[in-house]
Amino acid sequence: MNVRIGNGYDIHRLVPERPLILGGIEIPHSLGLLGHSDADALTHAIMDAMLGALSLGDIGHYFPPSDPKWAGANSLLLLQQVNQLVRSRGWHLGNIDSVIIAEEPKMKPHLQAMQEKLAQTLSTARDQVAIKATTNEKLGPVGREEGIAVYAVVLLLKG
Ligand code: MG
């Protein structure tokens, strides 16, 4: 088989006095994402999708939150490591499609910067990294602005 597909999901709580970082971009907002690392839920969902495509486990296995080494970690560096792992197994990225679910703030002004940052981090073309955004129509915890969730799908190609 020359193609593999993986999906990833992540959610982090929104809390005061934390930066809001998605796709390696800091977004101005009164609340930020809580987590052991920089809590970049977009980058985390993409990493999980890449690992899932090759049945290599999940990010918790490689970067356990119990390990102080990853406290405040820049998730882009973790993504680079996952990409290297994928390449070392003889695979490379075909494309990523992702969707950020957030009530506030508006993501649209930041999507292009996230796309550029992630493409650069993965050494791939911008049009291979799709990032979409939607609200949760004020429904549930995401709708109440208690957190931000992300879904990602990744296609890997052999070679
Ligand atoms: Mg996470």
Strand order of the largest sheet: 4-1-7-5-6
- Compute the CA-based radius of gyration: 15 Å
Bound molecules: magnesium ion
Structural class: alpha+beta
Order of helices and strands: EEEEHHHEHEHE
pLDDT average, as an integer?
97
- Share of helix among residues? 25-40%
Alpha-carbon distance between the termini?
Answer: 11 Å
> How many strands in all?
7
Largest sheet: 5 strands, mixed
Helix count equals 5
Bulk shape: globular
Low-confidence stretches: none
Classify the beta-strand content into a percent band.
Answer: 25-35%
Key features of this structure:
two-stranded antiparallel ribbon, 7 strands, binds magnesium ion, alpha+beta, single chain
Notes on the structure:
By secondary structure, this protein is of the alpha+beta class. The strands form two sheets. The chain has a five-stranded mixed beta sheet. Strands 2-3 form a two-stranded antiparallel sheet. The mean pLDDT is 97. The protein is built from five helices and seven strands. The chain has helices spanning 41-53, 59-62, 75-88, 108-121, 140-143, and strands at residues 3-16, 21-22, 25-26, 31-33, 91-101, 129-134, 147-158. It is globular, with a radius of gyration of 15 Å. The chain binds magnesium ion.
